[in-house]
Amino acid sequence: MTTLGPTGFLALSSALLGIGLFGILTRRNFVLLLISIEIATNAAILNFVYFAAFAPSAPLGISGQSIAVVLVGFAATEVAVGLAIVLALNRAKGTINVAEVTELKS
Amino acid sequence: MDALAMAAPFAPELVLLAAALLVFLLDVLGVRHLEALGAIGTAATGTSLLLVIADLGFGPLGALRTLGASHLDAVPAPGTAPLYAFSSFGLVFQGLFLLAAFLVSLASLSRPSHERGAAVFFGLLLLATLGMLLVAIASDLIFLLLAIELTSIASYILVGYTRRDPRSLEAAMKFYIIGALSSTLSFFGASLLFGAYGTTNLYAIRASAGAVGYPVLALLGFGFLLAGLAFKTTLVPFHAWAVDVYDGAPSDVSAFLAGGTKKIGVFAFFLVFLGPVLYLRGTGGANPFAGPPFDIGPVVQVTLAVVAVLTMTVGNVLALLQREMKRMLAYSSISQAGYILIGVTIGTAPALAGATLQVLAHVLMKSGAFLVVAAVAGLGVGPLIDDWRGLGARRPALSVAFALMLLSLAGVPLTVGFVSKFVLFSAAVQAQGLFVWLAVAGLLNSALSVFYYGRVLKAIFFDPATPTPAPSGAAMGAAGPPPLGAGGIGYARAAAIGLIAVAIVALGLYPQPVLGAIQSAATHFVAGGA
C-alpha cells in the first residue's frame, strides 16, 4: 500500500477548497451554496488532521485532531443558521435562488 | 484554587453570558416586553463595561477590579501555550466593544414596543458581544477564529431578525454567504499556519514569524487569513457586501455591525499580523532560528500597505457617488477601516495607539450616525440624502449631534476624529521611510471625505426643506402606537445620541486620560509578552 505524501495531501485539500470556492462562485441555489461552503470548510478540517499526524515541528498546544472535532461542530452550527435563513427567505419571497433576491441595489 | 477565584477574571464575559441566557429564558416563560428585555441587555453591557474599566485600574473604579494585577500582561511561561491571556491592550478593546454594545442596546430601548423579536434582538446582541470580548483575550488562533464565529453567527441572525422585511432578509442572506466564505478562508489559512509552525498559539507564531521552515506554507496561510479577516473588516477588495448589509439591516443593527462587530477583525489583525510586521522592524523578541530562510515580513507589510491605501481611496470615492444616507455611511465606514489598517502596517506602539484611538472614534461616530439614521427614519424621513433637507430647522438638536459625528468622521479639529487621525498620521511620519506616504495618502483621503460630509451638512442646514408628506403617522396607520417621547425619537435613543455627541467633543478637547491609557497598553502589546 502506498501512502499519500505531503504534496499529495495538500493537493487533495486544495482541490476540496477549489471545488467549494467554485461552487460558491457559480451556484445560485442557496442550498447548493451551503453544500459548497461545507466542502470548502472540510478542506481546512482535513488539513488539521493531516498536519497533526505529520507536523513538521513538534505540536504545541491543542492538537490538530481536537481542533478538527471542534471545527466539525462549528460547521454544523453555521449550517443550522444558514438553513434557518433559507426557510425564512422561502417563506418571505417564495424562492431560494439568490440571483432572484435583488432588492438592495449595488 | 477555588472555582470562584478562577472565574473572577472572566466576570465581564460571565455577566454577558448570564444576561443572554436570562433573556432567552424570559422569552420562553412569556415575558416579551421590549422594555424589560432591553433593560437587562443595557444593564448587562453597562455592568460589563464598568468591570472592564475597573480591570484596567482606571480611577476610583480600580478598587473593583476582578482581574488580579498579576494576570494582566503576564508573559506565558515558556513551554506553555495558553488559549487566552489578559493584556491591557485587549482590555482596552473589550471596553470599546462593550461601549458600542451598550450604546446600541440603550438606543434600542426606544424601538417600537409592539415590535416582535425583542428577545432575539437583545439575546443575540449579548451573545455577539460575548464573542467580541473573547476575541480580545484570545492568544490562540483557533480560539480567536471561534470567538469571531460566535459573533458572526449571532450577527447573521441579528441582520434578519425581523423576518418580515424582505430587505433585511436579503441582507442576512448576503451577510451569511460572505461570512461563511470568509470563515472558511480563515480556517484554511489557520490550518496552513498550523502546518508551517506546528502550533496555533499566537505567541509562538509571533516569536518565529519571520523564521519558519516552510515559508511558502506560512505565506499562503497568512494570505488566506488576510483574505478571511479582510472580509470581516470590510477591506477592499472584500468590501462590496458591507454596503448592502448595512443598508438592508435594521439601522440599530447596522450601528452595531459598523461600530462593533467590524472591530473584531481589526483586533484580529493586530494579533495575527503584528508578528511578521514586528519581525521586520527588528523588535520581535528572541528569534529561535538563526538566519531565516525567507523573510516574509516585507511581503506582508507591503500587502497591508497597499490594501490600506486602496481601502481608504475606494471607500471615499464610492461614498462621494452615493445618494442614499445609509449607503454613504457604509462606504465611509469602509474608508475608515483603511485608516485603521495603517496602524497595523506600521506596527510601532504610537501607530497602534493611533489606530486604537481611531477605533474608539469610529465606534462613537459610526454607531452614533446609524442611530441617528434610525431616529430620523422613525420621524418619517426618506432614505435619500436629499430627503434630509431642512432637517436642521425642524430638529436642531438632533441635527447638531449628527453634524458633530460627520465633522468628527471628516477629522475636523476639536473632535475625537481629529485627535485620532493626528496621532495615527504623526506615528506614520515618525516611522519614516515609505510610511510617510501612508500618512500622505491618509491626509489626501481625509480632504476628499470632507466633500461628501459637507454635502450632507449643506442639505441638512442650508437647503430649503422639500415639501414632504405628513411625517411618520401615515406609514404606521391610524392604529399605530403612540408617538415616543423626546419628540418621536424616544428618551433612551435621545440619551444615547446625546452621550455620543458629548463624548466626541469631550475626547476631542481633552483626550489625555484615554490616550494615555491606550498608549501604555499599546506599548505593552508591542513589547512582546502580551
Question: Can you tag this structure with a few keywords?
Answer:
heterodimer, A: 106 residues, mainly alpha, Helix Hairpins, 3 helices, B: 530 residues, globular
Question: How many β strands of chain A by DSSP?
Answer: 0
| CA distance, first residue to last residue of chain A | 54 Å
Helix content of chain B: over 70%
Structural class of chain B: mainly alpha
Order of helices and strands of chain A: HHH
Report the largest inter-chain contact. Answer: A-B, 47 and 47 residues
Please explain how this structure is put together:
The complex is a heterodimer of chains A (106) and B (530). Chain A has helices at 6-26, 30-54, 64-93. With 106 residues, chain A is mainly α. Chain A has one domain (6-99): Helix Hairpins. The longest helix of chain A has 30 residues, at 64-93. Chain A is elongated and about 50 Å long. The mean pLDDT of chain A is 86. Chain B is mostly helical. Chain B has one domain. Chain B is built from 21 helices and no strands. Chain B has helices at 3-7, 11-29, 34-55, 88-108, 118-137, 141-159, 166-197, 202-207, 215-233, 240-248, 251-281, 297-320, 325-346, 349-378, 391-394, 396-410, 416-430, 435-461, 485-488, 491-509, 512-527. In chain B, helix 6 packs antiparallel against helix 7, helix 11 (251-281) packs antiparallel against helix 12 (297-320) and helix 17 (416-430) crosses helix 20. Chain B starts with a helix and ends with a helix. The model of chain B is unreliable at 283-293 and 470-480 (pLDDT under 50). At the A-B interface, helix 1, helix 2 and helix 3 of A face helix 6, helix 7 and helix 10 of B.
